[in-house]
Design brief:
By secondary structure, the chain is of the alpha+beta class. It is built from 14 helices and 17 strands. The longest helix is centred in the middle third of the chain and has 18 residues. It binds adenosine-5'-diphosphate and magnesium ion. The site of adenosine-5'-diphosphate has 23 residues, from helix 2 and helix 4.
Length: about 400
């Protein structure tokens, strides 16, 4: 009774997997992030049955040297940091060295990898955390990781997996986010042998947004570009023609990492006050570049939240620059020309009907509202463009 056990590595990894590997989409996230950290310019994602049966990620990144392959599956084994001080200068997505250890503890994993310096690659099979085989293999530079039978040895976890459809939506959602955060990388996503998404990888954010969300969203975006003492911001924000009833289309990235930051979300809501209806949420795709020394990315298990050193200043600067950018374009004027273009637009929508079909396969698109006619807009609840300018000037 009350004997204290020191857990063995396999048990530790399985427990840790509970935090990092919640569902197939978490595996997809960790693996794609590794591909991005490896400097890949192309990442191919293949999934079957919502990732429950198979997840395959192929990249053209730096690969892992044969002598290092075994180490990559050990817990706390990472090539991205050496000590805690490195977190103050961190630009990689990973740094904890947990993902491969956790994923391989709860699945059947196969990795094929090759660096440019080695003439031949390595193929390794790991099942439930144990290396089953390792052999040389001819392959291209880069890494392919195949995950089969996720949670085969943790039945409790397996029971909580959602339907194939729900898991697929989670994965699609995640790939969209990673693709938008990394326009320099070409993403190809295939689900049950059906091509779902190909991004151009041309380093243009607008091209990625267009390939995911289509033309109409792109036509209603305003470019934002600004640098201040605390951060650099770039990207696109929606004008007053587009908004939705949840925040799913508020894409915020800090140093290329997708985050849900309350400070940033609040600054966005405040900036759009009076510009879009109350209880509606704007659309934005913004990339904040912040000195890693002034943020803490290590406060959340999946790194979804970050902590800022200068929270208040960040909030004010951000709110003001968003607002200024919004008001720098003639919102109401744009609205009128948009209205006139309606006929042509309807034709375009019809021509794009394939895209529309695709759109509804993704939960992100459920309730995008593109206002097409003046009368659909509760005009009274809005300030006019001039009113907004006036009230802004008054508060200054
Ligand atoms: P982390 O990403 O936190 O370093 P992981 O467990 O995800 O930890 O990966 C362990 C190590 O394996 C990485 O630090 C990296 O060196 C190597 N690695 C994993 N995936 C890849 C990949 N796709 N390409 C090259 N190296 C990889
Ligand atoms: Mg990683």
């Amino acid at each position: 009774m009350n004997r204290i056990n020191i857990l063995d590595d396999l048990t530790i990894n399985k427990i840790a997997a509970g935090e990092v590997v919640e569902r197939p989409s978490s595996v997809v996230k960790e693996l794609i992030e590794n591909s991005i950290d490896a400097g890949s310019t192309k990442v191919v994602i293949d999934i079957q049955d919502g990732g429950k049966k198979l997840i395959r990620i192929t990249d053209n990144g730096c690969g892992i040297a044969s002598s290092e392959v075994d180490k990559s599956f050990l817990r706390h084994a990472t090539s991205k940091i050496k000590n805690i001080d490195d977190l103050y200068d961190l630009y990689s997505l990973g740094f904890r060295g947990e993902a491969l250890a956790s994923i391989s503890a709860v699945s059947k994993l196969e990795m094929v990898t090759k660096t440019k310096d080695e003439p031949i690659g390595t193929k390794v099979i790991v099942e439930g955390g144990k290396v089953v085989s390792k052999e040389p293999v001819g392959t291209h530079n880069g890494t392919t990781i195949i995950i089969k039978d996720i949670f085969f040895n943790t039945p409790a976890r397996q029971k909580f997996l959602k339907s194939t459809h729900a898991e697929t939506i989670n994965i699609s959602d995640l790939i969209n986010k990673l693709a938008i955060g990394n326009p320099h990388v070409q993403f190809k996503y295939v689900n049950n042998n059906k091509s779902m998404l190909t991004t151009p990888g041309d380093n243009k954010l607008l091209s990625v947004i267009r390939s995911i969300y289509g033309k109409e969203i792109c036509e209603n975006l305003i470019e934002i570009n600004h640098e201040c003492k605390y951060f650099k911001i770039s990207g696109y924000i929606g004008n007053n023609n587009i908004y939705r009833s949840n925040k799913n289309l508020q894409h915020i990235y800090i140093n290329k990492r997708f985050v849900k930051s309350k400070i940033v979300l609040d600054a966005i809501s405040e900036a759009y006050k009076g510009i879009i209806p109350i209880n509606k949420h704007s659309i934005c795709f913004i990339q904040l570049t912040i000195n890693p020394a002034s943020i803490d990315v290590n406060i959340h298990p999946t790194k979804l939240e970050v902590k800022f050193e200068n929270e208040k200043e960040m909030y004010i600067e951000l709110r003001d620059i968003l607002r200024k950018t919004l008001l720098s374009v003639s919102l109401i004027g744009k609205y009128e020309t948009y209205d006139k273009k309606e006929e042509t637009k309807n034709i375009l929508v019809k021509e794009n009907s394939n895209q529309s079909k695709n759109i509804y396969e993704n939960k992100e698109f459920e309730d995008i509202k593109v206002i097409e006619k003046n009368y659909e807009r509760p005009i009274d609840s809005f300030m006019s463009f001039n009113d907004i300018i006036k009230s802004e000037n008054n508060t200054e």
